[in-house]
Amino acid sequence: MLPPAHTPPRMVTLVFLTGVSLMSLNMYLPSLAGMAVAFDVDYAVVNASISGYLAITAVLQLIIGPLSDRYGRRPVALIGIALFTLASIGCALATDIRVFLAFRILQGASIVGSALSRAVIQDMFPPQQAASRMGYVSMAMALAPLLSPMIGGGLDELFGWRANFWVFTIVGGALLVCCWADLGETNAAKSETFVKQFQTYPYLLKSRRFWGYSLCMMFSGGVFFAFLGGAPLVATAEFGLSPAVLGLFMGATPLGFLVGSFLSGRYAGRVPLIRMILIGRMVTVCGLPAGLVLMLAGYVTVGVMFGSVVFVGVGNGLSMPSTSAGALAVHPQLAGSAAGLSGAMMVGGGAVLNWIAGAVLVDGYAIFMLFTVLLATALLALLMALYVWSVDQAEARAAMVP
């Protein structure tokens, strides 16, 4: 039997931890239509496995963070991964849609991966170095949604939809072994009791800097979620793209995020957090208006639409590791709670913006309405970044006063 880890994890373990938590969201999306037939239910019922999963992950992040501050990152991560693995078996064996949905929601425990990997990095490094490491981990956040649907579709073609959940089971088991052997405890300042923990918790909630970072992260991610909510309808109605071609173009944003995350990992350790965030937000805010202007000028093409959205991915990749590191650095003793709360805000806010983007589309003007929503959300993210900058400047001036 492998001995339990007693030292901080390698970065590859944190990348693996993050990637698995994200691949479980969308790897089986190509199978939804076939699953509806297999369970003899409407497509909307099977699609609830997505909305229910998002809802439970938002709630779980609020719980996982404080639990890891109290009991440590390692035990919470191991329990979450074990639950995900068992739930994957349940999904693979389910013959009733209600049983499947129950186990699918339980799979949401995999969110410990993306939530706690950030807290572990914050435990191990100072803020700027943490932002650099988060940049590399964030690359998994681009590769997972980019590759997972292609892998899942291939598995379905070869072995049927249940193959996805057997793969989840195998991957979950491998991740559990990996974390047992490599994920040593990094929380050196555990809360003695929940009472003492929540006595300091209001400090986090009252921090202007925490809300500035977290809202910037929420609106930054919200641009991407809004794009996901409107792009399929727009691309189908405006350009008549097939699902396969649409899937190829939808990879534009994750590819941009991959590039931005790589640049963040390379330079965030040398550039102040707020500067990295402002650079990323400006990249997005410059790219989207350029696309909108071209389309208003009559160049309504697939290349213009998806090409301008690449800037969303690059901007998010540049800024989100730094916004995350900044939010977690406000109160290092509550890094887990900060990771959970900021993550829940991003998922919950993103879900709302996803719905808004789909609701405001009007025939004949859908592409322009979509880009209006994207640009408005990107401007809100930039506004929040400027707010954090103003707080930094105010505190710097106050420190200079004798």
Explain the overall architecture.
The chain has 402 residues and is an all-alpha fold. The protein is built from 16 helices and no strands. It has helices at residues 11-26, 32-39, 43-71, 73-93, 97-106, 112-124, 127-159, 162-182, 194-205, 208-239, 243-250, 252-267, 273-296, 302-329, 335-359, 366-400. The protein is globular and about 65 Å long.
Outline of the structure:
With 402 residues, the protein is mainly α. Helices cover 82% and strands 0% of the residues.
Largest sheet: none
**Approximately how much beta-strand content do the residues carry?**
under 5%
**Can you give the mean pLDDT?**
83
At the first level of CATH, the class of the largest domain is Mainly Alpha
- Helices and strands, in N-to-C order? HHHHHHHHHHHHHHHH
Count of distinct structural domains: 2
Number of helices: 16
Here the CATH topology of the largest domain equals Growth Hormone, Chain: A
Measure the end-to-end span: 61 Å
Give the proportion of residues in helices: over 70%
